[in-house]
Structure formats: C-alpha cells, structure tokens
Design a protein that fits this description.
By secondary structure, this protein is of the alpha+beta class. The chain folds into two domains: about 1-145, no CATH class; about 150-200, Beta Barrel (OB fold (Dihydrolipoamide Acetyltransferase, E2P)), CATH 2.40.50.140. Helix content is about 60%, strand content about 15%. The protein has six helices and five strands, in the order ααααααβββββ. The chain has a five-stranded mixed beta barrel.
C-alpha cells in the first residue's frame, strides 16, 4: 500500500495527470489507425492507468472526464465509419471542452491553460495526419483490389436477378449482374469492384 500511496502522491500534479491522459489517448489512437504497433497501444494503456490513479487524488469534474472518454470513442469510431475526419473533429471538440472542465477547484488544482492548448493542438495535428494516411491507404487497397478483380471468373452461389452472392477467391461476395439473370453455379466475369460489392457480367 505504501508504494501505491507514494505513486499516487507523485502523480498528484494536475499537469502531470493531464499529460498522462493525453498520452493515453494518443497511444491508443496510434494503435487504432496503425495496427501492429503494440508499443503505442501498451504505452497508452499504462499512461491511462497512471492518469486515473492520479485523478483519485485530484478533484475531477465527471462531466469533463466523460467528454474526454466520449472523445476516445469518436476517435475509435473514425477507424470504422471512414467519415474523412468529421467524427475525429467531433472527438477533438469533446477533448477540448473536456479539458477545460476536467478539474474542479482553484488554480492550484487545474492544468496549465497553455499546456491544454498545446496538447490539444498537437493531438489535432497528429490525428488529422493519421486519419489522412489511413484514408489514403484504404483508397489504395480498394483500387488495388478493383484492378485485381476485373476479369476474374466467379461462380454464382445464389440466383442473381440482378443481385445475389458469388464465390470469389474462396469467399462469398455480394454481386450485381449487369443485365438479365444468372442461375446457381453459373460462371460470371467481374467487371468492377466497388467497396465490398462485385459487378459482374455473363461470360461471352
């Protein structure tokens, strides 16, 4: 217990607690947008645990902390919905307002305003960069997949009239036939790939 109390006492500085919280969000965000960098995610989780340990010694506004947690949820959502940064922008707004209202009490129990401004600015720039890189990589994967798929022969696994399912590279895909109908087990040719949907035509 003494070691925990000593650590809690060392982390009782609101500036340090705030920096740890921002590092936690940043580390988790890096892991989300560039999966495989386990160090970033691990460091983010450790920083988050230390931040919440620090908050146990400080007067924290639940509203401010909730806004920052919601912001992390928005940032995570960006990796799945591909909103071109709109969801991330909402998340950053939550971080800014959450940072302003995070601590209660006098000036001694608040993070430095310049630290908040610098941290949120740096976080915004870093997240915009990561979102842009993620979007570019996603577009490249779609483009590459489209080029590879064109001309491939697939087999209808359901009736296409014009929508149905086909077997492509050992997996079931949604497909749309350009005209007419196709029966089960009929071979078709891929003309395009848009998102997760194949566009097919009958073999000539």
């Amino acid at each position: 217990m003494d070691a925990v109390d000593n650590l809690r006492s060392a982390l009782s500085d609101p500036n340090l607690a705030y920096v740890l919280l921002m590092l936690s969000i940043f580390g988790i965000s890096v892991e989300i947008f560039t999966p495989g960098i386990f160090f970033a995610g691990t460091a983010g989780i450790i920083a988050g645990l230390l931040a919440f340990l620090a908050f146990s010694t400080l007067s924290v506004n639940p509203l401010g902390l909730s806004l920052i947690i919601i912001a992390l949820a928005f940032i995570i959502a960006e990796a799945f919905v591909r909103s071109r940064g709109i969801v991330t922008a909402v998340g950053m707004a939550c971080i800014i307002f959450g940072s302003i209202f995070l601590f209660q009490g006098g000036a001694d129990n608040r993070a430095n305003p310049f630290l908040i401004a610098g941290s949120t600015t740096a976080m915004s720039v870093a997240l915009i960069f990561m979102v842009n890189r993620s979007a570019i990589a996603h577009k490249r994967r779609v483009a590459t997949g489209s080029e590879t798929a064109k001309g491939s022969v697939v087999v209808a696994r359901t009736r296409l009239a014009p929508d149905g399912m086909v077997l492509y590279q050992g997996e079931l895909w949604q497909a749309k036939l350009d005209e007419g109908c196709a029966v089960v087990d009929e071979e078709l040719v891929v003309t395009d790939l848009r998102g997760l949907k194949l566009y097919v035509t009958k073999k000539k």
